[in-house]
Fold this protein.
Amino acid sequence: MSKQEKSEMRKKGGSRLFIAMGAVALLSAGGGGAYAMMRGGLMPGHEAKDNTPRLIRKGDSDPYPAAEDTPAEVYGDGGSEYRTAYYSFADSFTSNLKGSDGLVQLSLAASTRRDGRVLMWMQQHELAIRSSILTVLADTGEDELGTIAGKQALRKRLTAAINDELVAHEGFGGVDQVYFRSFIVQ
């Protein structure tokens, strides 16, 4: 075999190897792209699973209704486009106040514009939530509760405490606001 024939065989072998490597690279890129599209929800039937409670518009049905036997809800045209659902804590909260002999006793409700899972989670984790609420109350001074601004700040801290517990247990908070049903400072 001459040097020229050997050189031509090397060229043919090299080009075949190059073509084979190119084909492997294209197949890998195509497979990776298809996987990314499936995970990203871009391919039909392979949507990415998002288990976050969704905002519920007024008039839309809740995929996780709190109770089956409740009457149909009627909403006004104004305000938020989302419906608001409430959770009332059955028992009141009583705590000593920070740095004084005073006591606070209050009843609470919380609201969410998200689907019924938030209400279910609040009921399921009420014990942990109650503990966090009592901790916040015990860290509140009597002078803070004497003003409207102090009460509003307490509502924000209570909302954050509830959401922190829900995030710790379920990965998502969802409580928009806390409301005082009764409020006594002694």
Residues 105 and 184 are 5 Å apart (CA to CA). The first strand starts at residue 85 and ends at 88. The chain has a mean pLDDT of 84.
